[in-house]
Design a protein that fits this description.
By secondary structure, this protein is α+β, with helices and mostly antiparallel strands. The chain contains 13 helices and 32 strands. Helices cover about 15% and strands about 35% of the residues. Component of the heterotrimeric canonical replication protein A complex (RPA).
DNA sequence: CCCCCCCC
């Protein structure tokens, strides 16, 4: 145990009584603490889906309950810290939640990943910080008249000194809380946050009545929260709140967020009310601007349909303003398509809607960053802006400058690859481990029994190939591939209205594949035959005509090989019987290095491997 | 209190 860092003795007691403290010194002190235990707190019902970690911290004398800010979750999940870790708490705040004093760790630096417990820390007097005892016995619980209970010693005193100093430069010097600390349990707070993704004003009519609303995402160093204004509050705040500006916000209502309707990372959301105060703040230091998590346009094929993503690229083309009529509402909606390219050599179409489509000005091929665009599968991959998406023209970030340089020097002359759909127009284009089903499950779950095709992936071995009718004579015209019929000494394609001296044979393969759970018949077209036989259908037809034994050998060689499949299941009626057929969208030979890596990863992360 | 995000 030699060389363990010294803990900051006494800090837990000071934090527990921080209302009596010179907070500036205390909150700048960057104490070293031991993290005794981690407990995952599951998402609350109706809240978001983000787990949080409750951590018991110790200074060697006392322990104190704390929460990790969610942006630190990865430290636990990636095993960078575990039971007994020693860390410098670089940034934190304190809050009163359900009558308990809670340390909120916003940033930390790991000194020791794991260690034995240092000293024998005890509970702080009367305060059940240990978490094991009953809070109600000592401090008033949340159920005892929440409003009548005076707000516990002002958390104002417990704010990071730096933020407090900034706040003091404002006329009314409110205490500034991190967004991370907001909760329904206490309401005397002010946050200082940047307004992002302000929506248009939207109206609704339903059984309960009608109204209008807009929403905006507020963001500070600690996190983000979605805020919504209804009806009268729309008139009060819509013009006042401007995208990108920083505001002091107080007296808004904190509610549980219904996470399925938003991708904002917070358990709660705000509702602006009549008495809510929103004041622009000119001191914007330490209030972050948008955070992007860019993916390359080429990588969009690996992003699931309906997911949101961030893209940055050069606008190669700007489409005309047009309109569509919504099928659902019959509303006419303005629309504009942008074609965006990046250094991956791919292009993608981004659809703007409504005002954003109307107001888009076609300046000279700007760099644009898109945040939270929705991924669609039209023509392979497409992007669509939503009300929660945002668009940033020529942002002052390194990626944008790099793209500008690249495009002006070379990119402008380049041709770009568009994403393309592989005949399905649906999902299942790529093999995705998350979509792997065993064949028994595919059958019992009745994949493909609905009207729409359903997609699944499988890893399976070829057991048998129907070899009587493995290919057909097809039109040799690029992109046609229709069946041709022999007429005299030529082959005629109805579709192309042309005759050819020779057809081009194309595969149409039916094969039984098997995994540990069961067997299924899959059908595949030309690329599938090419993959499993390692030759074109023309070559194989040629072999069959010359040497039946050699032909059978080629078929035999394809048996017993294992592939990763991306499949489509679809109902099909033939001769008055309806059954589900499975078509192969993609067939990929196993890459054993990759398979081994995948398995090793499972081993490393499973409990029974420890 | 919304929770739609559209079309080809």
């Amino acid at each position: 145990m030699a060389g363990l860092p010294q803990l900051t003795a006494g800090i837990c007691a000071r934090l527990a009584n921080s209302e009596n403290e010179d907070s500036e010194e205390l909150f700048n002190s960057q104490p070293t603490l031991q993290l005794l235990s981690f407990k995952k707190v599951p998402p609350t019902g109706g809240g978001n889906n983000v787990d949080r970690y409750r951590v018991i911290v110790s200074d060697g004398e006392h322990f104190l309950q704390s929460m990790l800010a969610t942006q630190l979750n990865h430290l636990v999940e990636e095993d960078a810290i575990s039971k007994g870790a020693v860390a410098v708490i670089e940034k934190f705040t304190c809050n009163i939640v359900q009558g308990k004093r809670l340390l909120i760790i916003l940033a930390l630096r790991v000194l020791v990943k794991t260690a034995e417990k240092i000293g024998s820390p005890g509970s702080l007097q009367g305060r059940p910080e240990g978490g094991a005892s009953t809070p109600a016995a000592v401090t008033p619980g949340p159920s005892t008249s929440t409003n009548a209970t005076p707000a516990p010693p002002p958390v104002a005193a417990a704010q990071p000194a730096r933020q407090q100093t900034q706040a003091n430069r404002n006329a009314r010097a409110p205490a500034v809380y991190p967004i991370e600390s907001l909760s329904p349990y206490q309401n005397n707070w002010t946050i200082k946050a940047r307004a992002m993704n302000k929506s248009d004003i939207r109206t609704w009519v339903n059984q309960r009545g009608e109204g209008k609303l807009f929403s905006v995402t507020l963001m500070d160093e600690s996190g983000e929260i979605r805020a919504t204004a209804f009806n009268a509050a729309v008139d009060l705040f819509y013009d006042k709140i401007q995208e990108g500006k920083v505001y002091l916000v107080s007296k808004a209502k904190v509610n549980l967020a219904k996470k399925k309707f938003s991708n904002v990372n917070n358990e709660y959301e705000l509702t602006f009310e009549r008495n809510t105060e929103v004041e622009e703040c000119l001191d914007v230091t330490d209030v972050p601007t948008v955070k992007f998590n860019f993916v390359q346009i080429s990588a969009l094929q690996d992003v699931a349909k309906d997911a949101t993503c961030d893209i940055i690229g050069v606008v190669k083309e700007v489409g005309e303003l047009s309109t569509i009529t919504s099928k659902a509402t019959s509303k006419v909606i303005p629309k504009r398509e942008l074609t965006v390219v990046d250094r991956s050599g791919y292009s993608v179409r981004v659809t703007l809607w409504g005002k954003q489509a109307e107001q888009f000005e076609a300046t000279d091929q700007p760099v644009i960053a898109f945040k939270g665009a929705k991924v669609g599968d039209f023509q392979g991959r497409s992007l669509s802006m939503m009300s929660s998406s945002s668009m940033h023209v020529n942002p002052d970030i390194p990626e944008a400058h790099a793209l500008r340089g690249w495009f002006d020097a070379a990119g402008a002359e380049q041709t770009f690859q568009a994403h393309t759909s592989t005949f399905t127009g649906g999902g299942g284009i790529t093999f995705d481990r998350a979509e792997v089903r065993n064949l028994n499950e595919v059958k019992t779950a009745e994949f493909g029994m609905s009207d729409k095709p359903e997609y699944f992936c499988a890893q399976a071995t070829i057991m048998h190939i129907k070899n009587d009718n493995i290919s057909y004579p097809a039109c040799p015209t690029q992109g046609c591939g229709k069946k041709v019929v022999e007429l005299g000494d030529s082959w005629r394609c109805e579709k192309c209205d042309k005759s050819y001296p020779k057809p081009q044979h194309r595969y149409m393969v039916s094969m039984a594949v098997s995994d540990y759970s069961g067997q299924a018949w899959l059908s595949g077209f030309n690329d599938v035959g090419q993959t499993i036989f390692g030759m074109s259908a023309d070559e194989l037809v040629d072999i069959r005509e010359r040497d039946d034994t050699q032909y059978n050998q080629v078929i035999e060689r394809a048996i017993g090989n294992t592939y990763n499949f991306a499949c489509r299941a679809k109902q099909d009626s033939y001769n008055e019987t309806t059954r589900v057929r499975y078509a192969i969208n993609r067939i990929i030979p196993l890459n054993y290095r990759e398979e081994a890596k995948y398995l090793a990863n499972i081993l490393t992360h499973s409990d029974w491997a420890r």
